[in-house]
Amino acid sequence: MMDDKITNRVRQLQTALNEHSYYYHVLDDPKISDAEYDRLLHELKGLEEKYPQLVTQDSPTRRIGAPPLSAFEQAEHAIPMLSLDNAFSDQDILDFDARIRKNTGKDAIQYTVEPKLDGVAVELRYENGVLVQAATRGDGFVGEVITANVRTIRSVPLRLRTDGPLCPDLLEVRGEVFISRKGFQQLNDKRLAKGEPLFANPRNAAAGSLRQLDSAVTASRPLDIFMYGRGQVQGVAFDTQSGFLDALAAWGFAVNPLTQKQIAITTALTFYRRLMDLRPNLSYEIDGMVIKVDQVDLQQALGEKIKSPRWAIAYKFAAVEEVTRINDILVQVGRTGTLTPVAVLEPVKVGGVMVSRATLHNSDEIKKKDIRIGDQALVTRAGDVIPKVVKIMASARTGKEQIFEMPSHCPVCGSKVLRLEDEAAVKCINAACQAQRKERIRHFVSKKGFDIDGLGKKLVEQLVDEGLLSSFADLFSLKKEQLIPLDRMAEKSAQNLVTAIDKARQIPLHRFIFALGIDHTGENAARLLAKAFDTLDGLMAAEEADIEQIHGMGTITAKAIATFFDSPENQAVLQKITDSGVVITNTLAEQPGEKDHVFAGKTLVLTGTLSAMTRSEAKKALMDAGANVTGSVSSKTDFLVAGKDAGSKLNKARTLNVPVLDEDRFLEMLGS
Ligand code: D41
Questions:
Q1: Separation of first and last alpha carbons in the chain
Q2: What is the pTM of this model?
Q3: Topology of the domain comprising 4-63
Q4: What are the sequence ranges of the domains in the chain?
Q5: Is any atom of ligand 1 closer than 6 Å to the C-beta of 176?
Q6: Residue 342 — very low, low, confident or very high, per pLDDT cuts 50/70/90?
């Protein structure tokens, strides 16, 4: 028994669910809750089971539940999937442009550039607007048919949207399947828990996930896709690559939002640098930028070589990964007593910088990655952050590698270490430990604290080792005569240091609080305290409950602060500091009317590029206005300030309904 009503309901559910998939997975802008989506999908599944004749190829139920294959079929690409030539320098790119200008006889060429994703290239075939086949690139001529697996990718449209250009009879679209960094992390965490082998990187995880004979396995993997190229197309023509990408977006495909359309070659080079800056903050891995001649008639005139088109090139980022030997594992003791294992590496150049140390974070990390002394390790350096060991090269093991054990006693002061419950960190809790003392003093004199010129790591160590500096207060009674006899010190350098210390005697309250290095108390918290309590005495007199009441202050931080000022030892040091002529002023409380600033007490996140100021200038201005500035968008964020080319944070803010300020609006509010 079948009536029109049921047919209509099934068609309505199919359309609505595909539509909601698009809002959620392509636009990052869901219109209904996950629960509501599941409810609709459940209803559709029920109806399709009862009336199988209503199942269509593009029904959202087809994303899951295809029977497992025993092998992949092969499919020849109607038009070979070429690869890309690589460029490694600006000169290579300028040569590429010169070649193209010469071969086309044009003075200037317009390019469209896309980030180069490090994933798996695939081709999707749509007949009359419906996805009928997906295949891997294979050797470029013949690939494997992975249609059921690709259907599980939620950002792949099962049917083209109709608000785009007229639906072509045939459309082959090419793109890159990838897994986000976070998805990769979660996938490997799950595999670790189940004792399964880990994927080495997101690219391998994406490739492995696409190569499953059972698409239920693929469906459980967080695959995503960006489209960038065309194969065979009938029923529609494109004049430009940028126009093609616009059409793809209108048909419901995900196109990389960082794509730059119709730009000059010099602009492309500038964008390459910008992409390098953005790279560490992207939610997925990229390994360069692809530059394509925008005009299709010029592409055709240029033609192709055997393996790659003459009209496109990949400008790869320099490798920031190298393999080297872990010669030893040392343990460093930080300011708060945390023991951090550090790999001593056979020195190696990574992305142009010599690297001889890499942090191993903690003993759990070492266990998880099974890092041993003597291992060959893959080391990365992302931007200017501390080098990391990505993984060890298990196949290079000789059997002579040594397992590292975290020491039971502090390597510096010898006192027994403690592993706190629920924390990965092992701590030396001896406050008199020389290592902690050195780190505390370094923090005290650092740029954001007392900012004492010329008092670097080496000199702090020397002063502590010589017994001249055992607490913060000692710093202000140092005499030139005590310094002169030290190694690498002379009359002049000793005098300079004394002068620098003298100059630092006057300090704003928030910097003074930061300098103390109280647990969990960074710049933000220090500023909040300075604002709330006005003077050091006011702060010292505050109860934990008073501190906790400050907007933006966490309970753990409040507790740490109260505990710090409760300690008689700390009180004595503070007394000595103020007795030695340190003058603490509150520059934050002095600004009139500031408490009423629209951003006071608000939490903001900055993203993208501002034209009127740098991000750190904006941060400073906001903090002066009494705002908190954090790095990631959450439900606690009051505003997202979105400059040019804002990326994933903007999407997140929209998802969470966090108000977004563009630069003009931001400056207006900041000035008011
Ligand atoms: O993001 C990529 N990995 C990417 C790969 C991209 N953005 N554009 C590409 N364009 C092409 C041409 C110009 C040949 C259509 C590509 C690739 N090819 C490609 N990926 C793997 C092999 C070739």
A1: 68
A2: 0.55
A3: Helix Hairpins (1.10.287)
A4: 4-63, 86-316, 322-403, 434-504, 508-585, 594-671
A5: yes
A6: very high
Instruction: For the domain covering 508-585, report its CATH number.
Output: 1.10.150.20
pLDDT digits (tens, 9 = 90+) for 352-385: 667 899 989 888 889 999 999 999 999 987 644 5
Place of tokens 């977006």: 249
CATH of span 434-504: 1.10.150.20
- pLDDT for the residue numbered 444: 96
Residue 210 and residue 196: Cα distance in Å, rounded? 18
Best mutation site among 117, 137, 228, 289 for ligand 1 pocket (most ligand atoms within 8 Å of CB) = 228
> Which among 79, 100, 117, 176 is the best mutation to test ligand 1's pocket, defined by most ligand atoms within 8 Å of the CB?
176
The DSSP annotation for 285-335 comes to: -EEEEEEEESBHHHHHHH-B-SSSBTTEEEEEPPP-EEEEEEEEEEEEE-T
pLDDT of res. 423: 76
376 is written with which tokens?
Answer: 């060959």
**Which stretch, 87-91, 97-101, 524-528, has highest mean pLDDT?**
97-101
Give the distance (Å) from ligand 1 centre to CA of residue 139.
14
Atom of ligand 1 nearest to the CA of 140: 22
- Residues noted as catalytic: 116
Tokens of 207: 């490739």
Ligand 1 centroid to residue 83 C-alpha, Å: 7
Pick 594-671's CATH classification: 3.90.228.20, 3.20.20.70, 3.40.50.10190, 1.10.560.10. Answer: 3.40.50.10190
Q: Which residue in this structure is represented by tokens 């992949």? A: 72
For the 86-316 domain, the top CATH level (class) is alpha beta
Mean pLDDT across 318-327: 86
pLDDT band at 297 (very low <50, low <70, confident <90, very high): very high
- The residue contributing the CA closest to ligand 1 atom 5 is 116
